[in-house]
Each structure stands twice: as structure tokens, then as C-alpha cells.
Amino acid sequence: MRIPLSWLREFAAVPAEASAEDVMKDLVRVGFEEEAVHRPTDALSGPIVVGQVLSLVKEPQSNGKTINWCQVRVVPEGAEQPLAREDGSAEGISPDGVQGIVCGAHNFVEGDKVIVTLPGAVLPGDFRISPRKTYGHVSAGMIASARELGLGQEHDGIVVLSTLGLDPEVGTSVYELLNLHDHAAEVNVTPDRGYAFSIRGIAREYAHATGTEFTDPASLPATVAADGQGYPVTIADQAPIYGRPGADRFVARVVRGIDASRPTPVWMASRLRLAGIRSISLPVDISNYVMWELGQPLHFYDLDKVTGPIVVRRAEAGETLTTLDAKTRTLHTEDLLITDETGPIGIAGVMGGASTEVSESTRDVLIEAAHFEEVSIARSRRRHKLPSEASKRFERGVDWQVADRAAQRAVDLLVALAGGTVDEHGTDVGAEPVAVAIELPVAYPAQRIGVDFTAEQVEGSLRDLGAIVEPAGDDAYLVTPPSWRTDLLTRDDLAEEVARLVGFEHIPSVLPVAPPGRGLSRIQQQRRRLLSALASSGLVEVMAYPFVSQAGNNTFGTPDAGQPVTAVKLANPISEEFGFLRTSLLPGLIEVARRNLSRGFRDLALFEAGSVFLPGETMGTASIPPLGIKPDEDVLEALYSGIPDQPLHVAALLLGHDTVAAPGHAPRAWDYADALDVAKVAAEVLGVDLVVSQGRHQAFHPGRTATLSLRSGAVVGYAGELHPRLLAELDLPERTVAVEFDADALFEETADVIVAKDLSTFPVASQDVALLVPAEIPAAEVLEVLRTGAGELLEDVALFDDYRGASVGEGQKSLAFSLRFRAPDRTLTADEASAAREAAVAAAAEAFGAVLR
């Protein structure tokens, strides 16, 4: 919010010597944040004066351009001393006060008064004016446009002062003429303080901060009675879609016979410019001026273009409206509209329609000053992507009581500046909202804030705020917040206001004592332990975007080729190529790897932990519930059921070699066993028994893929070498390996407390066994049968050889296992170990027809 200081001084007692920095310092005390200081003179300096064109000679040039060779008087005729530069010299300024200037603009004629920047002046962008030879003349100055002076973006010609309604004396300082010595303080206004988006609100806050006098610009009531004979208006939206009707007040006034082509007064245009608002036309500028001053957005309609009564209603399905930005918009049934007999003429509180726009030919104006429900305006603004100063105020809350006074202020300005006459009758329809009183115990602010506020401080602060404070017993108040503070709803809000107005600096800094018995949850501890273990094993953690292509989801999101994957489609993706939320982490990891490969990193071991998004049968909800009221349990259940499942997955991608090549050392290429090791590290650190078996996945090599399962049989992931065809398509190195598993499933399998096994003091008995089995039987299944058949004495079993060849016969393979036996209470004999080994072999023979080799 930009605050021109001259404007602020009209309503608050700001000292004449106070700077913008001083004002911001005071406003910080009541909760605002400093943003910037805006001074036109920071970018302008030196002699800039009013000049009059005495002569103008058009000279065509060889480049096809025509320039004007002008003689411009910059000192009143007969003046004794010509204008001097800032350093006291008069270099480049003619002694007779007439400058020869070359100008390329053609929107002025002889006799016009213009703005002249003389030698020694500095314009925005550190553009320094000095005499220089151009087009065969020495040009001693420049006739300036608004954009060259930093006063606007218009560059369709130089500034002709008569078009601004000005006829100053030659030689007048432009700094004084255009109020360029005024400056503005800019503060950040938090969303809950919509009243501060106005000079009225800021002036009140400045008075709170400094204890000085405040004059409310909205204290004078409207001078017309709403007797039902004004312009007909009906509020037809009474159904509370967002907890309240979309409109609860509509003030309409009519001013006739205005001259919309009149220039905006310099004082108004300069204030709007300093506030960051571009001057457009007199009616539009008046509307913006009143909004900035009182915080009440207004809209002006060309009365001759309005047909029949005004009706405020919700949009009907299929309705459209061409807004002031010349875009035709399809309206939503929740949009609140301003309509006449022809249909919509504006989206309430957001933007008006082009069909009733005020132009220079407008003679009669219908003024709208209304009060709209905040959520409705916010939703329409977001839906149509139409941010505006009006919607910014409406969606944060506008004072219900100020609508008629803002309309009266606009009427007065149109009459005074545009020459209009006001209709005798006005319109004011709607019902005033019921003021809600809040019971506030006297001691509550002190208890809540931690400062011993006195009763006088509490009551005085609330009265200064504008609230009505009434006693409610011996130790409590009944507080009715002022109409402009729609954010004050609870006793906590009031306690905060007391602290703010008394002064935040009185609140002591006390570090809270951490409550005992708190800490990381079991899942948080497990996640931290898992990620630390992976990083310690040599993997580098990365974070990829969760947005992937549909092809990426279809390839990695399901093990079966040709089976489409249901994924969440983004409504407004950063890139259409990556328009879906991921169902697997591997597409994102692959993009990270490809980016690093393109920059020369050839040996990579990457991992990521992140959520994937797995929609169920229901995705989303048919309708969004209103935001003004709390949804009931059924609505919440419907919302939750439409949210996709988001389990935590962990994935790793390894490509290149495990180490860097060095003299005497040949690095080893990553292979599928390394991908399996990542999963085994995760299982070991979490204390989970992970079953590894031969698997199949469309993204992995047909013969080098492992399925990762729990003892219950639930598949939690896949590991192995990526498919050669996929590696060629993605331009990745051969033998790139990957693993991905559901970490949440592992967390659920983990016991709350992992108990370490006792270390036996008795020696181990090791025996090996080689079995001939059919080649199609997975080794993992044979291993599990051996484990079960060996009984309780078996401590561990591991596969150490898989041989296939002519010596074992076609369709057969030899699997060699190492079995480790140990008893917890004694040293095993050779016979006991052998008996357990034979039991294991017998179980394999029964299950698979295995034969000892």
C-alpha cells in the first residue's frame, strides 16, 4: 500500500518535517512492515521548467524522419536573470531565455506550453541533458514526454500542459507545478487487515502509533435520502452459498451532464501516480481516488448503456460476459453478477463489463458503491484470473457503513470537476449485518499475551480502536468491534489488538520450556535411520520434481506392459510434457541423471525418498464445499476419499562405475547386485525380512529383475537392471541399474522396538550342499525350502553358486548353498549338523525333485 504523504496529512497530524521513513517507522510500531520509499525527485534533478513554443520549423531528413526545429522560451520575457543550473552556472542556457531545441514529436504547435528539461537536468535512468549537435542544429535541452520524466508510460508525444487544464507562467518550476516534491511511503498490509488498504485506514493507524489526532474522511454522511425513488436496484442473491448472501448492500447514485473529456486535476493525478495508479480519464480517476481514500471500491456505468433495473444475482449456466479487458469469459454458476435487462454487465467486485464502460462521450453516470461477501469475490477473482485493486479490498473485507459516504464523495467530485448535476433521489438497498459483541474478561489480554495490562490500557486501546466497550459484570467487557474491522471475531483477536496498540515492545522475550516426553515418532525415527544408512553407503540424495509425463507413469507405474496407469492430471502444469503427478520415483531420478550426464558426470549413484500419488476409484470431488462454513463429516469424508494415496517410496539409480579409475585400479561397473544391496541395506537397518525372488517388470531387463516382497507375500518393490531398449531410448549407459520400494510398507512391518539377537559363544558348523533342480525354478524358492526343512539349528543359508552347462544336463541347473548351523546352548556334533542338512535336502527333493550333485 503506497501512501502519499500530502494525502495522509489531510486526515492525520503528520509533522511537516516528517519523511516517508519517519512515517514507516511509526507504522511499524502497530504491525506494518516497511517496503519502500517513492520519491519522484530521486530520479529527477536540475532545471525542469515550463516553456512556450515560439516557433516550429519542420525539417524532413534523409532517413525519412521529420524533425521540428523549435525556439522555446523558458524564462519570462523581460526577466533579468536566466535560469541557472544546480551548480550555479548557466552553461547551455541562452541569455535571452530562448532555447533552440530539436524535437521528434508532432503533437504540439506554436504557442503551446510544454515541459522543458534544460542543460544540467538529469532524467530517470541517469539520462543527463546537455547541449549537443543533432540533425544540423545544437539542441540545448529537451521537450519531455511523461515517460521520459518517469511520470507514466504514455509516449505518444510530449506533455502539452493545456491538455492537463494548466496554463502556468513560462519558467515555472515543474517540480512545484506537478507536485513532484511529494513522496510516498509503502508498507506491507497483512491479509487480515483489509481496512488498511486506504488512506483512511492508514491515517487511523498512524494516529494509534503516535497518539496524534485523526480526522475520519468518512465521518460526514451522505446528503441524499434513500427513499425508493432512485435508480431501481434489486439484490436477488439471498441464498448463503458461502455462509452469507453474496451482496448485502448496494448504493446507487446518478450524476448527469458530466464532461468526461475534462482533464484530471494535477493534484489528483499526481497523488494517484504516487500511489501507483495510472491516470486514465477523469471519471475513472475519481473512482480510483475515492477507493484509495476510503477503501470502498466503486464502479461507474454509462447510464445511457444500462437497460432497465439493476439486479444482483448469481450467474446462470452458459452465460458469458465481455469484461473491460476485452476478453469474453464463460461464467460459473457461483459467480456473483451485476445485471440489467440485457444480461450480465459486470462480475461483482471484480471487473465491469465492456458494454457499459464509461468513455469520453459519456454524459450521465450511474455510480455503484456496494458491499459483497469476501469469499465469493475471492473465488471469482481466482476463477477468472482477474486480480484488481477492487477485488483485493473486497476479498479482505470492506466497511459496510462506508458505501453511501463513498458514493457521496464520488458525486461531489464529479459535480466539482466534471461539471455534472446530481439526481435528487438515491438508492440504498440491503440489510445491515448484525453486530456481534465479544465478551472479554479484563484479565484475559494479560493472561494471553504475558504482559500485565491495566484495565485502563485494555479499555482505552479498544475504544481507540473504534470499538464499543460496555461493562459486563465486575471483571469483563462486552466489546462490539467497529464496522471496518471484520477480522475481529474472538477474544484472542481483541487481546492481540490490545498488545498491538499498547506496544509490542512491552512483550518480554521468554524462551519456552520444551515439554518432557516429546521427540520423533517411530516412523520419523525409522525414516531418518533409513535415509542416513543409504547416504552412508555411498549414495547421493537428490530431489526431483514430482511432475512426470504420462509415458513415464505408464512405464514405471506398473509391472505389466500395455496396462494404463491411473494418475492425477495437473490442471495448470508448468509444462504440458510433464502434466501428471508421479506414480513412481524413477522417471524423476532418470531426468536428474540425464541432466548430470549431459554435464560430464558419468559415474552416479543417486537416491530419492518422496511421495508418489496413487489415485483410488474416486479421484477428487464433484463439488467444492463453500469456504465460509465448516463442512460436515459427510462432506469431509467425501473429500478425503477423493485424495490419492501418497505412500513414501525410496528409489535409487546407479550408472557408470562404483569408483574412479586410478593407476593399478580398474573400477567395477554397477550391476544388478548393487541394486539389490540398496534394498538389503534398507531392510537390515529397519529390521525387516525382505524376500528377494526372480521377478518381471516392463521397465527392467527380462532376466535381471528381482521382486522385493515381505514374508507375508506382499510385493513392496523391484530391483535390477533397466531394460536395454529403455536405456537406448533414454540415452543412458548400458547396465544402468535401479531399485524402488515402498518405504511405508517396510515401516509398518518394523517392530516398535528392534531387539538385537544374543551373540552365541558356541562355534558354528558349516556345511555346503549342491542341488540339481529344473532351470525354471527360482533359487529363492529353493533357499526358502532349505531354510524351513533344516529346522531350528539353521542360523543362515546363502546361495554362492549357480551353474548351468552340459555337465548338468539340458534344462537343469546346479545351485550351491552354504548352510550355517549353531545351537544356543552347546557345541553341535558333526552328526547333528549333517542330520539337519539331510532334512533340508529332503525337503527340497520333495518340493522340487532336487537331487544332490
Summarize the structure.
The protein is of the alpha+beta class and 853 residues long. It contains 21 helices and 40 strands.
Primary descriptors:
OB fold (Dihydrolipoamide Acetyltransferase, E2P); alpha+beta; single chain; 6 domains; five-stranded antiparallel sheet; 853 residues; Phenylalanyl-tRNA Synthetase, Chain B, domain 3
Characterization of this structure:
The chain has 853 residues and is an alpha+beta fold. The chain is built from 21 helices and 40 strands. It has six domains: 1-37, no CATH class; 42-176, OB fold (Dihydrolipoamide Acetyltransferase, E2P) (Beta Barrel); 233-430, Phenylalanyl-trna Synthetase, Chain B, domain 3 (Phenylalanyl-tRNA Synthetase, Chain B, domain 3, 3-Layer(bba) Sandwich); 438-505, Phenylalanyl-tRNA Synthetase, Chain B, domain 1; 523-612 and 647-749, Bira Bifunctional Protein, Domain 2 (BirA Bifunctional Protein, domain 2), CATH 3.30.930.10; 765-852, Alpha-Beta Plaits (2-Layer Sandwich), CATH 3.30.70.380. Strands 28-31-32-36-35-34-33 form a seven-stranded mixed sheet, sandwiched between helices. The chain has a five-stranded antiparallel sheet with strand order 5-4-3-6-11, with no helix packed on it. A five-stranded mixed sheet has the order 13-16-19-20-21. A hairpin with a 2-residue loop joins β9 and β10 (137-139). α5 (266-274) packs across α6, α11 packs across α12 (491-502) and α13 (522-536) runs antiparallel to α17. The N and C termini lie far apart (87 Å).
